[in-house]
Each structure stands twice: as structure tokens, then as C-alpha cells.
Amino acid sequence: MAQKDTKVNIGMAEVNIDLAKHTSFLARASKEDSAVMREIAVETKKDSSSMKTVAVLGMLFLPSTLLAVSF
Hints:
Blueprint: H1 2-70
């Protein structure tokens, strides 16, 4: 009986080691994903400010262009 318990304990230890390896892999992958998401957020913020600039310029110049073309 004790021999059977030892085999079960060894098997459980091997499973725990495999689980730890997978957990470590998932943690690294999650960290890499977070870094990529941060880069995307920074680039999105830059793009958003550029789009605001284009919108403001459009609001300033389109009405005057319409008036100039009408006359």
C-alpha cells in the first residue's frame, strides 16, 4: 500500500512540475502581450491627436472654401 501511495505522490509531483512550466509560459506570454498592447495604446493616442488636428483644420478651412467657390 505504501508503495502505491509513493507512486501516486510521484505522479502528482510530475503533474505539478508540468503545470508550473505551463504557468510560467503563460505568464511570459501575458507579459509580452501586455507590452504589445502598451505600444498599440501609445500609437493609437498619437493617431488620435493627429485626427483631432485634421478635424480642426477642416472646420476652419472648409466653410471659407465653400464661400470662395460660391462667389
